[in-house]
Amino acid sequence: MSLSHNRGQATDVRYQQEKQKEKEKEKKKMTSSKDALVISFGEMLIDFVPDTSGVSLAESGAFIKAPGGAPANVACAISRLGGNAAFIGKVGDDEFGRMLVDILKKNNVNTDGVCFDTEARTALAFVTLRKDGEREFMFYRNPSADMLLKESDLNMGLIKQAKIFHYGSISLISEPCKSSHLAAMKAAKEGGVLLSYDPNVRLPLWPSPEAARSGIKSIWFEADFIKVSDDEVNFLTQGDPEKEEVVMSLWHDKLKLLLVTDGEKGCRYFTKNFKGRVNGFSVKAVDTTGAGDSFVGALLTAVARDTSIFEIEPKLREALTLANACGAICTTQKGAIPALPTAEEASKFISSYKAN
User: Fold this and answer.
1) Low-confidence ranges of the chain (pLDDT < 70)
2) pTM of the model
3) Is 91 helix (H, G, I), strand (E, B) or coil?
4) pLDDT tens for residues 30-44?
5) What whole-number distance in Å separates Cα of residue 334 and Cα of residue 106?
6) Quick one: which of 216, 47, 15, 44 has its CA closest to 124?
7) What is the rounded average pLDDT for all residues in the chain?
8) Helix, strand or coil for residue 43?
9) Going by DSSP bridges, is the β-strand pair 37-41/164-167 parallel, antiparallel, or unpaired?
10) Where is this region: Disordered (predicted)?
11) Where are the alpha helices (DSSP H) in the chain?
12) How many CA atoms lie within 13 A of 204 on its CB side?
């Protein structure tokens, strides 16, 4: 009895081992077929958007709940375009926090770097949409869970697997998140990971405009590529963003690419060897939330697939045309993540736009 029982156990063990080997082979296949990993670091929160455009927060009768936070939007944008994305950050151990992590998972974003905080709530932002689709913000973070990300919370193993580490500036505003941000950047840099920076200026969150300018510029020289809007160029330089010498005052020698987005006019690009402008797409804007993140997601997806984009101008222009299209599409719906396009939708949009 015991001998056959032992044989049965041995067979079970062998069977389990074979199954495990098959799983590992399948996992390797999936990993090898995937794009290189892009990690987005920072905040994820709930945006409450008025159901009517062109009214103040006080005048709005109702709000639409939408997942948001620039780094999380970028991660979802990459995944929606078929890329390989992960998000690192912290949310509250509450209904909203769990909902946000579920949304990341539904969008095929790796959540191995997400932590839950039992003491602080998930951040909230009320976003007013003016008649032109531009936004004004009111934040509820005192402190919110994302601000409490500690260095010990960081999944360093995940960071070292990345090809690109992308971040904003909101995570630099307060401790302990600031130190965690710097530690994550350092680990990425030491691991040969490319650093991507979109300052994503949100002045209401900083103690003062001067503190914002100083904080944003404090990590400026670490980045391999930077994306700024024309308004952010104006804020950071106190100069005219249309003037090339003003934009180039933001250039540094370690940069592979500096991008300036100009809304529906498109974007300007600057590299060590060439510079230019790629025209945008004119659409009826409903909500500009997430447009820049959709643009960045498209660019990072292209870079993760082929870093020669920095040296070959036609490749860069093609990627930026797609990025402009993604940004434009994103403005045609309310909320950021729900409005992010797939690669197929962006290609169809470009084709139909050219046809018209």
Assistant:
1) 1-33, 131-135, 356
2) 0.87
3) strand
4) 333 478 999 999 999
5) 19
6) 47
7) 90
8) coil
9) parallel
10) 1-30
11) 2-33, 70-80, 95-106, 156-161, 177-190, 209-217, 230-237, 244-248, 291-305, 313-330, 343-355
12) 10
